[in-house]
Design goal:
The complex is a heterodimer of chains A (326) and B (321). With 326 residues, chain A is mostly helical. Chain A has one domain: ABC transporter involved in vitamin B12 uptake, BtuC. Chain A has 14 helices and four strands. In chain A, strand 2 and strand 3 form a beta hairpin. In chain A, helix 1 packs parallel to helix 13 and helix 5 runs antiparallel to helix 11. The radius of gyration of chain A is 21 Å and the shape is globular. Chain B folds into two domains: 148 residues, Rossmann fold (3-Layer(aba) Sandwich); 132 residues, Response regulator (Rossmann fold, 3-Layer(aba) Sandwich), CATH 3.40.50. Chain B contains ten helices and 13 strands. In chain B, the strands form three sheets. A seven-stranded mixed β-sheet of chain B has the order 1-3-2-4-5-6-12, with helices on both faces. The longest helix of chain B has 23 residues. Chain B is elongated. The N and C termini of chain B lie far apart (63 Å). The chains are: A mainly alpha (326), B alpha/beta (321). The interface between A and B is large, with 50 and 53 residues.
Amino acid sequence: MSKLASILDKYSRILLLFFIIAGMSLLKPEAFLTYENFSTVIFQQAPFTILMSFGMTLAIITKGIDKSMGSILVLTSVLCAAFIKQEQYIIGIALALALGILCGFLNGILITRVGVAPFIATYGIEYTALGLAFVYTGGQYIYDFPPVFRSIGIGTVFGIPNLALITFLIFIVLYFLTRMTTFGRRMYSAGFNFNATTLSGISAKNTVTLVYIINGLLAAVAGILYMARLNAADPGISGNFTLDSIAATLIGGTSFGGGKGSVAGTVIGSLIIVFIRNSMNIMGVSTTWQQTAVGFIIVFSILLEAATRYISNKAKSLGMVSIDAG
Amino acid sequence: MKKHISIMGVLLVMVCLLAACGGGTASSSAGSASGAAASGASGKEATLILKNLTNPFFISVKEGGEAAAAKYGLNLTVLAPLKADNNEEQMQMVEQSIARQTDILVIIPADTNGIIPAVEKVFEANIPVVDLNTKIGGDKVMWKTFVAIENYDGGYMAVKKLCELMGSEGEIIIIEGVVGAQTSIDRVKGAHAAIAEFPKIKIVAQQSGEYNRAKGMDVVQNLLQAHPNVKAIFCCNDEMALGAVEAVEAAGKRGKILIAGIDANADAKQAIKDGKMTLSLDSQPYMQGYSAVEAAAKILSGEKVDERIVTEMAVVTKETL
């Protein structure tokens, strides 16, 4: 039984993604099942959802949440846009990264040292960062960047688009960081039981702060890539990311209870969301239904998680009974 | 030491928050400029509430409004939601304006029907309302005048020109604005009317890009997969059209697909000059803001204004720029 639970937990998302792809391949093979479509979705649209969802996943693993990433993305991108436009790439990018780290650091300090709940702290930073972005731009778009910079977003290395390559590298780093380092183990432990982790001599506070710093950095990187792709720094895009990244994280099997989840699951979750959008566009389904579908899949994956927990609990109690009987 | 760090952290955040508040509500005042034309409206308080200040369109509306305010000696306060097109924030701004006892309210509702309860309060407080750009819903006419282009005509004008440039045949995609927004519904209706005049032009897809550039790009990218032979794309505003430009470029189809938008904002004009975009429609946001605040000044000085003030539009192409 518990074996069933772990199989369900491990492969159900991959199965769901497979069903979406298989279904669409049957319904609209000529538009969906093409190299162009897959490369557009996976290499161009998915990386942003994936990068932002990585941050959300780390935050949720520590039993927190990071609402601020979308706004940090906006603030860092509009601030560096002016430098990029004048071909001051290194200063611009360095400034964006530094600012991302600073915002993440503030989140971390507010949460771990001041003791503000993660939702509230990141909510505050979300508003602050977005407000500053508006002050700086006066709400205007910054449009049209030099081709050298744009090649980050649209160029390729050995035939693989840069966007996908950078996202993949970040995935490898995060996978290694969460699975094979003491930091990773501390992060899961802090999410599972913050106080017990602190009592066992680990600075859970520093660990959690570092998680939010990583998130700030991820947001800044995503911001730079987004500018290169969209050819504009847009103060109005923050809203799309937060909901999508929470959805991708939940669908990817990370539990809001903390201490459980993985960046690999999040990749699958993000792909599910991006493929749903793509499928519905191709099918000509209206936007309102797209929202409904994403919502439905979130509920579905939460139910799935509850079901796995129920099955494994039942298996445990059954196991105890059999020991007693024996 | 730890305590110091936390105190510093809190202080820093507070400073940031203060800074954010300043820009957050995006308020500004065009004071009663010296040399203002003497009128009965001189020195009175007017409030202009916009959908957002992220779209250059509304920044032009704001500038036009401020120019009219300066001319008639109105004290104009301009407000816009921090989260673009947020009805809830707009409602709060309306309520605050009543509390501040503004003499007149000029508003572009983000949500035609969502704003009704707030406007009812203004109506009950006997504060006159000028409805700008987007209609306020409901059966009861609670505004003195409605200043706007005819969005239906706009959609019609832009798409008719686009169809002619298509050589009167081929496939076309329509990208709508925010679902349920009246401007988008009317523009799409106008577009359909224009396309109906060209029997060889077929609408192969119609989806929402939520009036947003990034969203517009993703949607067009996906649609190009389903409809590779499409000849033209009509977007209900320029932001989405600029997203479509990037999507078409990414697909390597630059110049092969005609792209039309509405608003003729600065970025779009640049894209038209560069040959990336085909045409746009100048709904002259500056004049919309100006006309609305001018109407407000006239109402305050007791003059009669028409119930409907139509502002002009013009098709913008590479040739007219």
